[in-house]
Amino acid sequence: MDISRFKADHQVIAKGIADLRLLVQQGLAQNADRIVEHLHQLSAKIKLHLNAEDAVLYPALMRQSASAPAETARQFQSEMGDLAKVYGAFTQKWAYGKLIVDNQDAFKADANTVFQALHERVRRENQELYPLAEQV
């Protein structure tokens, strides 16, 4: 199975998250509007990627006769299938720079939770799921 698109998406998403973290580290108050803009730009890529995995990659692997790809895909979808919705709720909640400035600690906590979950999904897919998909 050709998963080069999914792998390329992971690289783009990782860079986007790193860029976002840099903006946060440089200061929420002075970068709040840029953070919101960056979140929305990154949002499109993340949502498309997660939805493509959930709608295309996981089901394709679940249809395999080999048990390892099918079971791993089921497990991933079960554990992480709603991440696109969680990310969407996060970006809607923090849609304005003023909200971030006025609630910096809450934004940092929410961002840390969402991006840690996203990072974990990408890491596990790269290490566990994608090698199986490439063998199919």
From TrEMBL:
InterPro entries: Hemerythrin-like (IPR012312). It comes from the Bacteria. This is Hemerythrin domain-containing protein. It comes from Ideonella paludis. Residues 3-133 form the Hemerythrin-like domain. Pfam families: Hemerythrin (PF01814).
